[in-house]
Amino acid sequence: xxxxxxRNISGPTNPHDARDQRPGSVRALGTIVHLKNAEGEPIxxxxxxxxxxxxxxxxAEREIKLWFKPNDIPPAMRIYQSVQCKDHYYFKKxxxxxxxxxxxxxxxxxxxxxxxxxxxxxxxxxxxKPAPYTLQAVAAKYLINEERENA
Length: 151
Prior knowledge:
With 151 residues, the protein is of the alpha+beta class. The chain contains five helices and seven strands. It has helices at residues 2-10, 15-21, 57-67, 116-126, 135-143; strands spanning 31-36, 42-48, 82-84, 89-92, 95-97, 105-108, 113-115. A hairpin with a 2-residue loop joins strand 4 (89-92) and strand 5. The N and C termini lie far apart (48 Å). 13% of the residues are buried.
């Protein structure tokens, strides 16, 4: 019931639909940006929403962990388990290493905050075991917009 109320307050995903169907909703304040190619011809559109609301608790967990690192969320507001990394994890050409390799990037280092589920994925990959999701999904999240020196 609470999820339904939140989704009603959010409004339809498309800001135009939100303005027509739920004018008082948050998404009614969003915009649609028309995209054009170098010649000025329309090639599509981008929706700029002001809010995201998942359909259910499982989707919310997946989406929060997909788009945010634990440090992006204040500790008191985290509802999913995070831990401190105790080992080094390096990433190079879609391969994970637990020691530095030339030209590898430090993905995580001791003391870094990490979702417990992401660390579980890395540990399984290092052990050569099947993981619930990909190394690329973890690497993209922890490396995006980061400038790091190899440790």
